[in-house]
Write a structure and sequence with these properties.
With 136 residues, the chain is α/β, with parallel strands linked by helices. The chain contains three helices and eight strands. The N and C termini lie far apart (40 Å). InterPro entries: Glyas_Bleomycin-R_OHBP_Dase, Glyoxy/Ble-like_N, VOC_core.
C-alpha cells in the first residue's frame, strides 16, 4: 500500500473554504467529512483535511496559528504543465485568493502560488521531466 498524506489545516469558515477549493476543481470525500471538517481529495494518495479551528485545536496543545500573520508552511503541489500552473492560479484569483508574487520560471521548472481565504500558502509547480537545473 502506498503511503498516503493527510494534511490537516484549520479554516475559519468550512463552507466558504470548501466552495473556494471546489472552484479550483477539487472534490471532497463525504465519507470523511462532516460539519467539523471536510476531506479534500488532491490525488489517490494526497488529502487535505479542512478542519474548523475549534476542531483543529482539539488535536493540539498550542494556539492555532493565524496564517494571515505568520506562515506555518507552504503547501506545494505539482501539475502536469506550465499552463496547468497558470490555470489554477487564475481560478484561485477569481475565487478570492491573494496572489503575492509573479510566476517563477527556471526553464526546467515553473511555479506560482497564492494565499487562500485563511492565509495558507499554496504553490503549484511544473517540472520538465527531461530538464535539469543549471549549476552556477
Amino acid at each position: 500500500m502506498a503511503t498516503m498524506i493527510f494534511m490537516n489545516i484549520p479554516v475559519k469558515d468550512l463552507d466558504r473554504s470548501k466552495a473556494f477549493f471546489a472552484s479550483l476543481g477539487y472534490t471532497f470525500n463525504p465519507q470523511f467529512s462532516n460539519e467539523q471538517g471536510a476531506c479534500m481529495v488532491v490525488s489517490d494518495t494526497i488529502f487535505y483535511m479542512l478542519l474548523t479551528e475549534p476542531f483543529f485545536k482539539s488535536f493540539i496543545d498550542k494556539e492555532v496559528a493565524d496564517a494571515t500573520k505568520a506562515n506555518e508552511c507552504i503547501n506545494c503541489l505539482s501539475v502536469e504543465s506550465r499552463e496547468g500552473v497558470d490555470e489554477i492560479i487564475a481560478k484561485a484569483k477569481a475565487a478570492g485568493a491573494r496572489i503575492p508574487e509573479e510566476p517563477t520560471d527556471y526553464g526546467f521548472m515553473y511555479s506560482q502560488g497564492f494565499e487562500d481565504l485563511d492565509g495558507h500558502l499554496w504553490n503549484y509547480v511544473w517540472m520538465d521531466p527531461n530538464g535539469k537545473p543549471e549549476h552556477q
